[in-house]
Design brief:
This protein has twelve helices and four strands. By secondary structure, the protein is of the alpha+beta class. This is RND transporter.
């Protein structure tokens, strides 16, 4: 009882001193935030930017494209992707580290039960136990506690919580990255299928042209070189169609890996990315608040992670600063010890000890100062990383808003080029059938039509990729308010 009362008095005294927390309190670093995105004004002529609505519940961002097949694939990413699984494991580890840091607030209780026998040498003079074998029965418990006098423990907990929050944001960033990569590969696959469709239709036209040319040659109207040119064009286009199989297979395999399935057993049939079923890339602008760049600080998980790591580094400065102050350790030990088992658990066998310990490093030749300087340097590095992350985010939004705007104009121009080339091919075909020109003119015009059509598909694929990249650049549907370090927060 005396020991416990003494420990209680010492604990009360230490609690009175615990309010002193050394080291700098955290303040979010300032960043330069523009008032608006410069590309958003031009884009608003084509798409109306949405107002910020972070308080509203968002549907999964990929649903803005209205593609049920894409929706089904995206739902599998968070549950089955292995990159996401690794990030989730790191987050759980960070949560455990926070719990471990919190445990330092409380006393540590240890218990020990032991039995041993010892015999002293008979040749030791003036020792009553010489030559005697003595048993020793012991049961003891020890309570130790280090009060958080200077905030070392609280700073460590603060840093651990910040790192856990950063890991939580890293997890969301991994999910968003994998989802965006899946969407990009999916639309690239649809574009490849559209190219296959174009080449297949072109091959039919080339086969008819070859048949016509052979008939004309048989009738003495066309030259043998016309037949050779028609055959070369047909075979060359067949080779292009076959080559697309490699691209298609690579994209299907990439999608399989993203959803956690073996590529060898995964198949996927998608519709072509043609004019009849092209999703609207402008939906990305309609669904996201592009008008206010400051929302990126809350909407992007990588920015949230970088900011939380600044807070973690700031807390580590406090931990390093606390090393300059003495540590107080309160300890109490009590138990039962006896030579005879029969008297081991009786009151006279009890023992106890109590005593505070104050430890202070008098001289370490600059070791603690160097550790504090290193912590401050790490903090400065994390601030620079945070600001760079913000700048990169602004640049990515600007790039992709501008890309959507420019590629829309480019696609309009390219479609006009396709229409013009098809009109030219119709006229050239009539002139060839009438014998006014050689087949070389037909070949050249057919090649122009095919190249223009494939260029239009390429621009459409780039538009979809820029649209997905824009969604990713503004954080998808995520907000910093979703950060949770532990249950109940």
């Amino acid at each position: 009882m005396i020991a416990m009362r003494a420990l209680a008095v010492a604990s009360a005294l230490s609690l009175a001193l615990t309010g002193c927390v050394v080291g700098p309190d955290y303040v979010r670093p300032d960043v330069s935030v523009p008032a608006a995105f410069k590309s958003a004004d031009a884009a608003s002529k084509d798409w109306k930017p949405a107002e910020p609505a972070d308080a509203k519940t968002r549907a999964p961002w990929w649903e803005i494209y209205g593609d049920p097949q894409l929706n089904a694939l995206e739902e599998k990413v968070a549950a089955a992707n292995q990159t996401v699984a690794a990030a989730a494991a790191r987050f759980r580890g960070a949560q455990a580290a926070v719990a471990q840091s919190r445990a330092a607030y409380f006393p540590t209780v240890t218990a020990n039960v032991a039995f041993n026998q010892s015999r002293a040498s008979e040749n030791v003079l003036y020792k009553s136990s010489a030559g005697v074998t003595l048993p020793d029965y012991m049961l003891n418990a020890q309570i130790t506690w280090e009060p958080d006098l200077w905030g070392r423990i609280s700073r460590a907990v603060e840093g651990g919580r910040a790192e856990a929050a950063a890991s939580a944001a890293d997890l969301q960033s991994a999910i968003l990255s994998m989802q965006a990569e899946l969407a990009t590969n999916y639309f690239e696959l649809r574009g490849t299928v559209e190219e296959e469709r174009l080449l297949a239709e072109t091959l039919q036209a080339y086969q008819k042209a070859l048949t016509l040319t052979k008939d004309r040659f048989a009738g003495g109207i066309a030259a043998e070189s016309d037949v050779a040119q028609a055959e070369e064009q047909l075979k060359s286009t067949q080779a292009q169609l076959i080559d697309l199989e490699t691209t298609k297979s690579r994209l299907v395999n990439a999608i399989a890996i993203l959803i956690g399935e073996p590529p060898s057993s995964f198949t996927l049939d998608v519709s072509p990315l043609n004019a009849g079923n092209v999703p609207n890339p402008g939906a990305a602008l309609d669904a996201l608040p592009l008008g206010i760049p400051s929302t990126l600080l809350e909407r992007r998980p990588d920015i949230a992670a970088a900011e939380r790591r600044v807070a973690e580094a700031n807390a580590r400065v406090g931990v390093a600063t606390a090393a300059f102050f003495p540590n107080l350790l309160l300890a109490a030990t009590g138990g039962l010890e006896a030579t005879n088992f029969s008297s081991w658990l009786m009151a006279p066998s009890r023992f106890w000890s109590l005593g505070p310990q104050l430890a202070f490093t008098v001289l370490d030749f600059g070791g603690r100062a160097a550790a504090r300087d290193a912590a401050r340097a790490a903090y400065d590095e994390s601030v620079a990383d945070y600001r760079q992350t913000v700048l990169t985010a602004f640049g990515q939004v600007e790039d992709n808003v501008n890309a959507l705007q420019v590629l829309r104009r480019a696609l309009d121009a390219q479609r006009e080029a396709v229409d013009a080339a098809q009109r030219a091919l119709s006229k050239v075909g009539n002139r060839y059938e009438n014998g006014a020109i050689t087949y070389l003119s037909v070949v050249v015009t057919q090649a122009i039509v095919l190249n223009d059509q494939r260029a239009a598909v390429s621009i459409e694929r780039r538009r979809m990729a820029a649209s997905v990249a824009l969604v990713k650049a503004v954080g998808g549907g995520w907000t910093a308010g979703e950060l949770r370090v532990s249950k109940g927060e």
